[in-house]
Design brief:
It is built from no helices and ten strands.
């Protein structure tokens, strides 16, 4: 599941995307992610955020745990650029942050992801992916 991005919006049909978003130094950013009832219960979950820096993350007001030794740009399959994709690129692993949390933190419907910038610079949040299994 992914937080809505401006690139995926249909003008005059969809609501504006939540991403990309700037997270200023010392500030909070709140995004929402809809999870259908059929996706739950989950046994495990990971959250990947393409941020370019460090931040703290809460899922539905519960603390998550960053996995700094496992920074990567993809949750599951490796992204392999194709010649016909033009300038489409993924970020470097070092620019992404990976978090884990108890699957019980998720609920069906709207889930809140709240980020607090702990980096010494503004962050540009370009992608948030949730993997559950």
């Amino acid at each position: 599941f992914s937080v809505s991005h401006q690139l995926d919006r249909i003008p005059e049909v969809d609501q504006p995307g939540q991403l990309p978003a700037v997270l200023p130094i010392g500030a909070n950013l709140e995004t929402h992610l809809y999870i259908p009832q059929s996706a739950l219960p989950a046994r495990r979950l990971l959250i990947l955020v393409d941020s370019g820096g460090d931040f703290a993350l809460k899922l539905n007001n519960q603390d998550t745990q960053e996995l700094p030794a496992q920074r990567r740009a993809e949750l599951f399959a490796e992204f392999v650029p194709q010649e016909d994709q033009g300038n489409t690129q993924r970020s470097f692993n070092s620019e992404c942050r990976l978090f884990q949390a108890a699957p019980s933190f998720l609920c069906s419907g709207s889930n809140t992801l709240k980020m607090f910038n702990t980096a010494p610079h503004d962050l540009n949040i370009t992608r948030i992916n949730l993997g559950i299994w």
